Amino acid sequence: MPVTNISCYRFVPLEELKPLRERLLRMCNALALKGTILLSREGINVFVAGIREGVDQLVAEIRRVPGLQDLQPKYSESEAQPFTRMLVRIKKEIIAFGVESINPGLATSPKLPATTLRQWLDEGRPVTLLDTRNTYEVKLGTFEGALDLNIEHFRHFPEAVQKLPEELKSEPIVLFCTGGIRCEKAGPYMEKAGFRNIFQLDGGILKYFEECGGSHYRGECFVFDQRVGVDPALRETDSTQCFVCQSPLTAQEQKDTRYVAGVSCPFCFQSPAEKMRAVIIAREARMRAISAPNPGSVPYDNIRPVLVPASCEGQTLGEFLCRTFSHHPADKWETLCRKGRFTRADGAEADETRIVRAGEKYHFHMPGIVEPDVAADIRILHEDEALIVVNKPAPLPTHPSGRFNKNTLQYFLACAYAPQRPRPAHRLDANTTGVVVWTRTRHFARLLHPQFSGAGLEKIYLVRVQGHPPQDAFSCGAPISAAPGKIGSRQVDEATGLKAHTDFQVLQRLPDGTSLLEARPRTGRTNQIRIHLWQLGLPVCGDPAYLANGALGTSMTLAPSQPPLCLHSWKLSFHHPITRTQQSFEAPAPEWATDASRGY
Prior knowledge:
By secondary structure, this protein is an alpha+beta fold. It contains 14 helices and 29 strands.
């Protein structure tokens, strides 16, 4: 049997809503009706479907309610039940508008019969047709030449009206919607806003279809049930609705390759690149929120773990600390131990005479820590299920060390990607900008890390140096010390240093006496490019540590206000740990590499 669909509404003061709700819900369930009935102190709104006999019994019951005795539903038929359940709800408004001063139960704009509107349109009478529906409804069909307010919800109607041209206030305007209910509020609102010639299409589009067919109308009419759309004969169409963005889709749009039921449609489909960009924008916004202000620049108590290596077995805590952190004097560690700054894993204090065992963990307590400010304009170049590729600003340490714990790239990424804890595949100096790769899990770190210590990796840096190299292409193979020295710096160590090799290519010799080079490190030693250029008498511009004439500075890290270190991780190529395909990433060149007129 065909299913009978009714829709109707009436603005009239209603009382005792709860008993009415229970009575209507009980009757609808007994008659196997489905749909929605909204009850409010301002009236009733009905969308219900079922067999005709049951629908008629419901209409008769509603008409027994004082004020609803002349309710006139609009009828249509469908082959299947368009609703999945029966709801009877009590709401503040039967159609959400949000303007309390509008009361259609007391006054509405003049109603224009459907046949009169058709006559006006047939005659070419000057009139503005104003669609009060939401954008996604208008998309499926509307009157020819109708004005679309491009609103996402009826609550946005008042704001849209304020933007209409002033000259419309004196011209005849016919408002229309699906069944007429929205126009009951839209009309009085527009009259209060100064529009002097407002009409409401009586019964809306559905009544127009019933009496006039599809004349002057293009497309279908969106309906709020599983039919999605009806044609001018009030028959269900082949249109459906996107589960993701709720856009109605015609039969032709459903043939689009971008339509995948429950996944996407032509209006919400995003390519992999678009999806990545949306994720990256949100991620960068999260990091901006985390870093403003720099979290480590607000005083906090820091507790750092200290693990005893096998080589320190049997030493005193004081001896272990002096050996492990040799860049600090012994009396410093002795004083800190006596102040109770070191505790065992069980929380008990540990003095400098305690004998330590391999594998033991101690905690170093540092109260009221304030870290130096860092640059935090972190840009994400790429991310997927395995990798995060970052364009690192400077100065910004990669991981906690020295004076830095929270003001580090590691901390920012951990907060932005929580509960994941990204791990660096390699590191850049705090003062170095550019491409740096992180992995999403320990598993991917194990897969990727070998490439950063062996073949299959290509790293290209831009670097601006003091002086003009005599050759266009040159190399340096000076070994570099493994242990840090003064201020945490490294040195060339021909006797016991680690093997290191860097190739250089001159890109520009600049008038200010500096040169722009391309550097390709073949090994990955700490400060390798900076030390090799320092060794060659070509110190990097802006370097606070490796100065001209072989001198050492007093600090390794610059402040954000100081001129930058002119070293940039420009391009990086490696094999993806999942696909094993070659991946290449590039960070835009900084100003010091693109503006040759800028002196250093």
